Amino acid sequence: MRKKAFKAESKRLLELMINSIYTHKEIFLRELISNASDAIDKLYYHSLKDGISGLAREQFEINIDIDSQARTLTISDNGIGMTAEELENNLGTIAKSGSLSFKNDADHSDEAAEDIDIIGQFGVGFYSAFMVADHIEVTSRAFGSDTANLWKSDGVDGYTIEPCDMDGHGTIIKLSIKPDSEEEDYGRFLEQYTIESLVRKYSDYIRYPIKMERTKTRAKADNEEEIEEYTEVDTLNSMVPIWKRSKSELTEEDYNNFYKEKFFDFTDPLRSIHIATEGTATFNALLYIPSKAPYNYYTRDYEKGLKLYANGVLIMDMCKDLIPDCFSFVKGLVDSQDLSLNISRELLQHDRQLKLIATSLEKKIKAELKKMLENDRENYEKVFANFGLQFKYGIYSSYGRDKELLSDLLLFRSSNSDGMTTFAEYCERMRENQKYIYYACGESAERIARMPQIERLLSKGYEVLYLTDDIDEFTFRVLNEWDGKEFRSASGDDLGIEDDDTASTEQLEKDNAEMLSFIKDSLGDKVAKVRPSNRLMSCPVCITADGMVSLEMERVLNAAPGDQKVKAERVLEINASHPIFEKLSALYENDQAKLSKYAKLLYNQALLIEDLPLDDPLEFASSICDLMV
Questions:
Q1: How high does pLDDT run on average in the chain?
Q2: CB 3.0-4.6 Å disulfide test: which of 285, 288, 297, 595 passes with 587?
Q3: What is the DSSP string of 352-409?
């Protein structure tokens, strides 16, 4: 019998397919099972369309058999099978897909066509088996044919086809697994556990049962101390994906159990989102909001992404393009039959359909979070405690592009109560004459509540948002405003309050310009300016900042790695209504040397109040002692 050469352009093409197209050798099993599923779908389609009797859906199955002694792995189906000519065309010609031809030729207006899911498109999946096998035999008998044929190949050297005997219709693919090497343990594909794991990972939702005879052990009936082995045929796949079932059929426990099993979490999720859409973006999805953040969530090691299925077959374990960074905590999967896959089915072509699905998912997640915020505040606050930082980073890192998506999901502590508040809730409580949304930064809400800079705002009944995360003020600078109301920092150079106190302070600054200038000179480049303050009430002094860089931004930026440091334009503000101001004025007239010492003391006091490090703690301690003596 003469060996035939492959009908591809060159021997090199097959070598490329075997060695380069697929990044994971284990993919071969997914491809062969998908081919078997396609073969059954074709026969099932014809049985429905042509009214063939004696073919019931429950009769179809895919079988896997392991012979570890002979080092063979066999995948068989009772699908439509192939004639000798079809073996020649489908297996003798690389990149010719019988499944794609069938899919294109099927009458899609026919009800029978709606009940099939043809997976294969490119005609190269079969050849992935050569990644793990050095010899392949395909025995096939077409439905309705009296004869069967055997296709054999060792790979790139060609193939033979000859008649053979076979009971029933369908296809049997026997792989002779390669010997183990130092680089690769091919023997793992002869282990029951490995095969079962791969089926559940990639082909769990193939809609025909995938069966395998498994060896098990049990105690002997006549002697419980002795163990005997027996075989049992198990169905390895669950067949019906939970996400393709109706929501009315499923309970919260069903959703939670699926999440914990598939995403390796021990706790129930806070929320599940079951999506089924048709139209420009047709897909099913099942998404979950975890109850806690993974230990590495805010590190570079964390990998975002959703599982991607095509007709129930796993294509990618972590598809990053389906979910934005701001919602990277969401776990789940997407199943679509409309995605454009590359030739190996391991990667997506970045096409319009993928973007449509991603956009739809983004909107669904936002809508679900907003619903939780409005109707399930307790659980939403848990979500925000775990992942709210990511919302803030999302606004900042997108330079405000995502602010419409994320700003109304933000929560902050405030001077209003111990609870959390949104921007919308803050604005509902604003005083009638209040123009701005005020905020203050610090390491904790409790510390911010004691800041002297917010005293005047609170005295006027203005609420102050407490920003305690390093990213907060950067996010506010990007947002700039909410619902037309500008943000103003309690430590900024302008609170936007115009009243009698403001006018009085401005006059006081003019009247004491020389004294303030002397204090500034005494402090040197420690401050950019010294001025009387109209924001302080009980405290004698505070440090604020003019310009774009605030004190909080200075601290955060300088804590980052790097030699380049930034410096805020520090301003020493002295309480104009405090007795200390009169004392300083008197010293300027009578004892400028002491005034210089007082200036440094006040500056250091302001640093301590702001929780900033002292420039020279020893000098400060000595100055205090001098005053005491």
A1: 87
A2: 595
A3: HHHHHHHHHHHHHHHHHHHHHHHH-HHHHHHHHHHHHHHHHHHHHHTTTTTHHHHGGG
pLDDT exceeds 90 at position 183: no
Q: Which SS3 state, helix, strand or coil, does residue 455 take?
A: helix
- What tokens does 12 get? 């090199």
- pLDDT, residue 12, reads 57
Contacts of 121 (CB under 8 A, 6+ apart): 97, 99, 100, 103, 341
Is residue 455 a contact partner of residue 538, using CB atoms and an 8 Å limit? yes
Is residue 465 within 8 A of residue 448, CB to CB? The reply is: no
Higher pLDDT, 348 or 503: 503
Residue type, 587: L
Cβ-contact 572, 603 below 8 angstroms? yes
More confidently predicted of 629 and 402: 402
Question: 550-571 burial string, b = 16+ CB within 10 Å, else e?
Answer: bbbbbbbbeeeeeeeeeebbbb
Query: Which long-range contacts (C-beta less than 8 Å, at least 24 apart) are formed by 370-378?
Result: 370/408, 370/409, 372/270, 372/271, 373/409, 373/422
CA distances for 481 relative to 49, 407, 441, 489, 496, angstroms: 63, 10, 17, 12, 14
Share of the chain above pLDDT 70, in %: 89
Instruction: Tell me the C-alpha distance between 357 and 115, whole Å.
Output: 23
Three-class secondary structure assignment of 83-145: CHHHHHHHHCCCCCCHHHHHHHHCCCCCHHHHHCCCCCCCCCHHHHHHHCEEEEEEEEECCCC
Phi and psi at 441, nearest 5°, equal -110, 145
Phi then psi for residue 184, to 5 deg, are -145, 135
CB atoms within 10 A of CB 598: 19
Average pLDDT, stretch 378-395? 97
Q: What is the DSSP letter of 230?
A: E
Burial of 397 (0-12, 13-18, 19+ CB in 10 A): middle
- Tell me what pLDDT residue 351 has: 67
* Residue 380: predicted pLDDT: 98
Alpha-carbon distances, residue 409 vs 98, 425, 516 (angstroms): 50, 12, 45
pLDDT tens digits, 425-481? 999 999 988 999 999 999 999 999 999 999 989 999 999 999 999 999 999 999 999
Cα 534 from chain centroid? 47
Condensed to tens digits (0 to 9), the pLDDT of residues 575-606 reads: 988 999 999 999 989 999 999 999 999 999 99
Token pair belonging to 492: 């900024």
- The β-bridge partners of 160 are 152
| Residue type, position 274, single letter | H
Q: Tell me the average pLDDT across 412-417.
A: 92
More confident residue, 74 or 623: 74
Alpha carbon separation from 111 to 103, 114, 277 (Å, rounded): 14, 5, 20
